[in-house]
Design brief:
The complex is a heterodimer.
Chain A (H helix, E strand, L loop, with lengths): L4 E9 L8 E10 L5 H14 L22 E2 L2 E2 L21 E5 L8 E3 L2 E2 L2 H10 L19 H11 L6 H5 L6 H12 L8 H14 L10 H5 L7 H16 L5
Parallel strand pairs in A: 1-5
Antiparallel strand pairs in A: 1-2, 3-4, 3-5, 6-7
Chain B lengths: L2 H7 L1 H26 L9 H12 L1 H31 L15 H4 L1 H25 L4 E7 L6 E6 L8 E6 L4 E7 L1 H8 L3 H29 L7 H29 L1
Helix pairs in contact in B: 1-2, 2-4, 2-8, 2-9, 4-6, 6-8, 8-9
Classes of the chains: A alpha+beta, B alpha+beta.
């Protein structure tokens, strides 16, 4: 059995969006290497609660890397030091005994801190609501596979659709840009036949909402792609740009 | 706002302006480099001075050069606007940010590299472009043998406000062609005798290298031209032509004059 670890945690504590936050240092003793990062925080919170202190607030839900709720910026990287996983899938064996771990919330104007490490990612919902859907009229159920879609296209659309909307791309970007998220949501529909009727309206509406939310611009650093727990490619960003400029500068039918 | 204005004030539109002006500046670099290779010719600057005259007096080139000045200014102003917007997008920064683990250094420092280049462009144009247009430069008189074009006699003429910037006559009796031109070559030669000035150029060219290693490829990504067939070619040109060959060849010019 592997030995338990002692860690020093520097955690961002902030009462709400209107107050100034600060780092508070906690000692996490007897941390099992088999714990997930969130379980480690659960144990710290249990101690804090027993002491009568306010536990550290952080977002979490499914704890199996699929819901996109967990968010922590750990030692300078969204979802911590490992590649292609969310914070809940990060295990304490990725750290060493006596390490100092700095835990911060996602930092973006468009993601205001709700409390401590939990941020409001409602901006993503509003971008989705602006156009990230297909309109389906009711009627008879169409036959399955009635519309042929080449395998490579279906795969590409599926890869884009794996985005869980966690916001790691925004957190990793030096400009707090949401381009990877928005482009994945644009691409998953732009690639498929069902997405065509609203394709050019969608990209314009979603980009306009993205700009209105106050996200930064894309410098093509590729940090988003490197930190995305679902390994979504920045090819999506090029695809979105192509559709956007086509809609704005070349096509004339759609406004 | 018109659709056009809306497009170019969007985050994507502003990046499109950066990409298009950037790529235009890249094509200029190739032209500038090929032209300047004449500095290496062993003819006391005759070809280079003739080229300088052509570039500043041929109307189509003049039109393109104003486009070029506009591109430099627009590229810099848009960079500033976009950077300020990006600062606003993250008002509170991270205490720890391990950018080196997820992105190349060049891509995260385009602003710094670009600022170095802008300062360089101002110094560079002030020392050559401005002087060529406005300063009282001496003239060089080349007497080129008609039988052997490599036989060139050069002599210096003082500045004369009435003299043409460039003139050529062929004297058949004496068997030579006489070319008189404003001597930019001499200015170049003199400038690159100072070690710190040469160093400034070498530093600026390494900034150019890092700026273009990211910038060239990035422009294609912004335009949306990113497909698996051509991406390797774009990457190759970005790194080896614009990141290595072009800056090295430019840096070789001041070094050539310094060590000549």
């Amino acid at each position: 059995m592997s030995k338990n670890m002692n860690l020093t945690l520097k955690v961002w504590r902030q009462k709400n969006a209107d107050t100034k936050g600060k780092f508070v240092t906690y000692q996490a003793g007897h941390v099992s290497p088999d714990m997930s990062f969130l379980e480690m925080l659960d144990v710290v919170n249990e101690d804090l609660t027993k002491k009568g202190d306010d536990p550290i607030h952080f977002d979490h839900d499914c704890r199996e890397g699929i819901c996109g709720a967990c968010s922590l910026h750990i030692n300078g990287r969204p979802h911590g030091p490992k590649h292609g996983i969310t914070t809940c899938q990060l295990h304490m064996r990725s750290f060493n005994d006596n390490d100092t771990v700095v835990i911060e919330p996602w930092r973006a104007e468009a993601f205001p801190v709700i409390r401590d490490l939990a941020v409001d990612r409602g901006a993503f919902d509003r971008i989705q609501a602006a156009g990230g859907f297909v309109s389906v009229n009711t009627g008879g159920v169409p036959d399955a596979n009635a519309i042929a879609i080449p395998k490579v296209i279906a795969d590409e659309a599926f890869n884009s659709a794996t985005c869980i909307g966690c916001g790691a791309c925004v957190a990793a970007c030096k400009n707090a840009s949401a381009m990877l998220f928005v482009s994945a949501k644009v691409s998953q529909l732009a690639l498929l036949p069902q997405g065509q009727p609203e394709r050019y309206h969608r990209v314009q509406a979603m980009v306009a909402q993205m700009d209105a939310e106050g996200f930064g611009s894309c410098t093509n650093t590729g940090a988003c792609e490197a930190e995305c727990p679902k390994e979504i490619s920045i090819t999506n960003i090029a695809r979105m740009n192509r559709d956007y400029f086509t809609a704005k500068l070349i096509k004339q039918e759609e406004a | 706002m018109s659709n056009f204005a809306k497009t170019f004030s969007s985050s994507l539109g502003k990046k499109l302006v950066m990409a298009l002006t950037g790529l235009f500046l890249c094509t200029f670099l190739i032209v500038h480099l090929v032209g300047n290779l004449q500095l290496f010719k062993d003819d006391a600057g005759q070809a280079f001075n003739a080229y300088a005259y052509f570039m500043t007096h041929f109307t189509p080139i003049k039109v393109v050069s104003y486009l070029l000045y506009a591109s430099i200014i627009i590229h810099a102003i848009y960079a500033l606007i976009i950077s300020l917007g990006n600062k606003k997008a993250r008002p509170i920064g991270y205490a720890v940010q391990a950018g080196n683990q997820n992105s190349p250094w060049t891509s995260r420092n385009m602003g710094i590299l670009g600022t170095i280049l802008l300062v360089f462009i101002v110094v560079h144009m002030g020392d050559f472009w401005w002087k060529y247009h406005n300063a009282d430069l001496p003239y060089a008189k080349y007497e080129i043998s008609l039988d052997n074009p490599n036989d060139i006699q050069v002599s210096e003429l003082p500045y004369d406000a009435n003299r043409l910037v460039h003139s050529e006559i062929t004297d058949l009796q004496a068997g030579k062609r006489i070319v008189v031109s404003k001597d930019l070559y001499k200015i170049v030669n003199n400038a690159f005798q100072t070690w710190w000035y040469v160093l400034l150029y070498v530093i600026a060219m390494s900034a150019l290298s890092f700026h273009l290693i990211h910038g060239f490829r990035s422009a294609f990504q912004t335009i949306g031209w990113n497909n698996s067939r051509y991406l390797p070619l774009v990457r190759f040109i970005g790194v080896w032509v614009f990141g290595v060959l072009v800056p090295l060849a430019f840096a070789a010019m001041p070094l050539y004059f310094f060590f000549k």
